[in-house]
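Suppose a colleague, Dr. K., hands you the sequence of a protein chain of 322 amino acids and asks what its three-dimensional shape might be. Before reaching for any lab equipment, you can write down a predicted structure in token form. Begin with the sequence itself:
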Amino acid sequence: MPCPNAKQELKEVIKVKVVGEDGVGLGGIALLLSRADKQVLTGKTAPDGVYAFKGLDAGSYQLSLPELDKDAWEELETKALVGDEGKSSRVASWQGAAAEITEEEKIHVIQQGECVGKIAEVYGFFPKTIWDYGKNEELKKLRHDNMYILFPGDKVVVPGKRQKVQTVKTADGLTVQRQGVPERLRIRFLHYDETPRKGVPYLLSVKTAEGVLVADISSETDGGGFVDQPIPPSAKFATITLNPGPWPEIHELNIGYANPIDTVSGWQARLNNLGYECGKEDDQLGPKTQAAIRAFQRTKNLRETGERDDDTKKALMEVALS
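The predicted structure, expressed as tokens, is then:
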């Protein structure tokens, strides 16, 4: 029997924190720690983005994020854990080596409301890695190199995922950044003369595709009249309440639902958002849509044709930021 007064030899800890580009912790990120004999430990980050591998023998190990492509994460900093934070009375339960998974490229057909930012989160990529993949070159040209405004039925080629490993030492805390997360919601509010509505108090509410409500954000429009806030790539619905209180002005948004500018429905969405009423976004160039185009052309001192000509398209893209 061991002596009851004998001091127990403590093992060591490696703590990992995964954050987004805004520095906020990300939960549910899969982690894999391996040692020289290929034995592994697995875990997932808590809602605050932290996971600790405990009960380790002192030394160096290999860390990977198996569900993320190598361009989707990078080390930000490593700091020594202080005092007992780097120690553990547990003994790690190592498992047999995980089977290597080779992922082939796949084709994702865009559904209404999707963009490359949203599918990159699902597949574990940095958005530009997908968008700049050689087999998407024709789609980039078709959509004017705008990966956030795609048309239902567009086919995006997702490359095979590439793994990356990072050497980590016991009694260290490693902070890793998930690239491309969060995205940003950027909406501009203008007066009827198209001057920015500056300093307007607002409340932003966001809901993801899974129905998860994101914490509300209170702020004011900036000097350009913008609401500019980080949101999850999976955000699907947003409500912006200007001047919250007894007489609020409420705007409900379907995020990612605007079609490309080279479609009639894309014009209709942008004109509607700017106050030039087209009615239903039905992708039909009817009398109401042509009247809205003429009204926009009149405002911009363009020839009033009611047609989707290049000068009008350029002006609409500049105003609508798309």
